[in-house]
Amino acid sequence: MKPTILAIAAALVAQSIPAIAAEAPPLRYDLYVRGAFNGWGTDNQLAYKGKGVYETDILVSPGNHAFKIGSKDWNAEWVANPAASVAVKLDNAYPLATEAGPEDYLFTKQTATFRFRVDVSDPSKPVLRISRVETPAGGPAVDPHANAAARAALSFATWDGKQETARFSVQDLQAPLRSYAHSTTVQLRDPGPQYALYQEDAALPRVRSGNLAFDALFALATHEMRLDSVKEIRDGNYNGNEAIPCDCFETGEKWHYVWTRDLSYAADLGLAMLDPQRVRNSLLFKLSGWREGVTPAPQVKGTPDGLQIVQDTGSGGSWPVSTDRITWAFAAEETLKSLPAAERQAFATTALKALANTIDNDRIAAFDKPSGLYTGEESFLDWRDQSYAAWIPDDLASMASSRALSTNVGHYKALSLAAMLAREQGDGARAKRYEGWARDLKRAINQRLWLEDAGMYSSLTAAHFDGAPMHKFDWLGQALAIVTGVADDKRARRILASYPHGPMGAPVIWPQQPGMPVYHNRAMWPFVTGYGLRAAVAGRNVAVADAAYDSLMRGAALNLSNMENLEWLSGQSVLLDEAHPELIGPVINSKRQLWSVGAYLGMVVRNVFGVSATNDGIALHPFVTAKLRGGVFAASNELALNNLRLQGRTLDIKLRLPALAGQGAEGMYAVERILVNGKPAGSAIKWTELAPQNQIEIVLGKLEVGDQAIRRVNADPYVESPAVFSPREPAIATLQRGAGGVTLDIAARDSAGVHYNIYRDGKLVAARLPAGAWTDRQATSTACYAVEAAFGSSGNRSHHSRPRCVDAGIEIPVTDARVRADLPLAAPSPRFDEPHLANWGKPQDRFEVGAIKVPSAGNYAVQVRYHNGANQINLGISGGVKWLAVKDASGAIVAQGVVQLPHARIEKAHTPIVYSTPLAAALQAGRSYRIEMSDFFNMSYLQSNSSFSAAGGLEGPSNRFDIYGVRLLRVR
């Protein structure tokens, strides 16, 4: 039978439907909306809808959210304007540039669903349009506490005079392992229910305190520790965003990778004690040797494989602009204390090898011999515009040459641990060398960074050609100085009494930076608060400890999670500022942030119950304050920490509390006696004294006063008040040398209530000046100047201005006949308007400048004039790191060392050309000198970065940049 015409037509239609559905997408890769609302991950893929259009709908919480359109591996990165961020308006069409650039922003004042539509009908000219769509209705309201057997609530006053409440309940109060319901009245950071459900883990410790809320919050921390315990990790910049097997800790709900500093601080605060094997695995993941084909330069030190700690991607192209990879030592030390003996030795051997290679090369690349300090960015505060001067992002070599308190304390810890391991492993000579370096570093920190007038350490010094310790402070650096013993008891007490606390806790930096959103600036970070608590306990400061206890419990209770960060004056996970959307923040915020989880676990185990691991056992030093006893623990005379498993032993700890003290009592309770399995014991207990199962009883006795000093500050979180903010840093508009001295003109950026201080060569030479002209009549021809602003009302000071020097310097462009290089000169272009050596820096590349003569003898700063556009200023592993040598006519080396050439801003026209970090050289007049630049290494030379998606990764190491010339500047 022949088919009918209708049947034929139906068959043709049927065939056409899959043909239409199978229309090939115009892009050969998947496309994602990646931003602050999803941890810059790949949760929100744009689905192809046909006719060149991709779409996805995203439920977005209130805030001003940075985002980009990008591929899984970031090889495609689309923004509205590669030169500046764009605040996207709804329903407007935005042509996208198909090149890297700053983030765009979407603002919403309430949770809503937005449709992101990208039209790639012309793949070379994609167009973005964002519209609001109706949010699907949720299901019926759920009461998580229905039919509960027991309930509890914690209420907290808000900054604006209201109350927020967290509620807790269990179905079976007597269950060996409880299941908790936890709800909150606070507006959560991310869309989702206003409650959480979690349960205790049979393999982890649990608390019974007589306070259901306290027990629940500890269970929440152990639950989130389990959620952060993964079998594989991933990051869009590595391995094409494909999974990497690793029994590791991931960094948080929005961060699925292992970052050196996050892991290290989290482990040190609490995780290493509870899961040392997983911490060890994660620490090993952050070690790497040389990648295939790399032959280290002769100046590089270490074992042939080059095994060392990885500095994560970051400012200016990573290490050694940033040098806090050595924080790895904090975690390694705690892990070595907690690993069983059978596993400890192998890890100790690897740890010493990696530490030694790291220490010895950091000593070459990042140690400033004149000051005795290490250079590099502040630890953890790695969004340079949040905590550095406004001009620093345009001159990252000046950030690279500054010295930071937190990073230097990290180096002290690394040196101390390496010395201990070297001695333990029979390398006495190495141990002695590292012990000496650690001792000298501790002395230098106390001599160079302590500010007696402030009663605190400066967080960082100004850059080269200035170098003064600035009146800038950070809580992490101060706390680390105390807990490592860098600060003596007297200085520890002053720090704890001097660092400011807001009503919700201590900010991570002080004072706050004007014109910046909340992230590191204007923020509390629970892990930093955790270190503040440890410092307070070490310094016996009850008031500061109570502030930390309050802050950590409040943050976890109201937000249903141990959040990444919180605005510091309101305690909110996002401070919505409709009048200034560019100041909204925290800019990004993740639940179950690993170091926040570690901080909460450490607060309970290490501080309340007082249990810490030692090299041969445990120590017991509980810190229960009168406020805790009369508040959180008022309903019980006993606290219990059960099922704490250490070194194959189980510890059940009872903390017996004294009677409630009278109203207004202050202090902390002394330990009256300790019993281990019924026998009296001291506060230090060796592993050999413990059985497989142990009952430990700690009885607290008299109330000791301790220290009650705390500095309290407050302000409206929506106002840039001089009480809590610094002024904007000024600038030196002009600098002229005349017969009467050197006259400089101070250009103000803030005027009301501000005065100015002038520094010459890092020393204060004039104070409390108005803006305008000032003449230095003691000036020399080698002087360099910087200016800071200060509020008269609060004394809060700005960062220093960009330094300006009297000497104009000797500039030698690459067009000079004295320049020798293997590459031909590149012609000027609209973007690079001078001749230059383009993409110089392969290991075999040669660059020399000969026959250099200086007009007068003295100290000179030798710098390379360059541009490094390998990546953006906040990303990558391709910062230039080279060896620079100055030789005389005989070939003798006059000066040599590492110079850094970090990433610089990339502009469409007239891209700014910058200078490297300086090499100091003492030169004589009339003699002939030669400058030679050769290879050193950066993080792209490591195997761990071989799958990195950008420069220095898949296509091989990248240590290249454009050279425009050299400069010799005469300085003091």
UniProtKB/TrEMBL annotation:
Q: Return the protein name.
A: Esterase
Q: Does the keyword Ligase apply?
A: no
Keywords, alphabetical: Signal
Q: Which domain of life is it from?
A: Bacteria
Extract the InterPro entries matched here.
6-hairpin_glycosidase_sf, 6hp_glycosidase-like_sf, Ig-like_fold, Ig_E-set, MGH1-like_GH
TM segments? Answer: none
Q: Name one Pfam family in it.
A: MGH1-like_GH
The record places domain Mannosylglycerate hydrolase MGH1-like glycoside hydrolase at 257-514
**Entry keyword ATP-binding:** no
Signal peptide segment = 1-21
